[in-house]
């Protein structure tokens, strides 16, 4: 049997799993930091944006919005930071829910930074997965 090529539609793969682009936007206004983490999903074609409002290191507000790719392309400030798999994105989303409860009343800078690191895929050694 032929092994299917992994070169369809210019998609990247990591250990045989499809990866999706992840974007970030961080800006500060009126003493609050607004940090947005976005993933571009193929099916349905949309952008899922997780918005964190952080004041003095405390996560004050967290919500998720979904946009079309066209709407997203019109937004300023987003930069591509990595590509990730859907399984890593699920870990990120679940961790985010835990952190949002944990960090309502205490400073959580390191927890938030560590959560974003989950999205970065570690390169496998010599192609072994």
TrEMBL record:
Keyword tags: Developmental protein, Glycoprotein, Repeat, Secreted, Signal
Annotated compartments: Secreted
GO annotations of cellular component type: extracellular space
GO annotation, biological process: cell differentiation; negative regulation of BMP signaling pathway
GO MF annotation list: BMP binding
Alphabetized InterPro entries for the sequence: CHRDL1/2, CHRDL_1/2_C
Domain Chordin-like protein 1/2 C-terminal: 10-129
Protein name per UniProt: CRDL1 protein
Organism: Oxylabes madagascariensis (white-throated Oxylabes)
Biological classification of the source: Eukaryota, Metazoa, Chordata, Craniata, Vertebrata
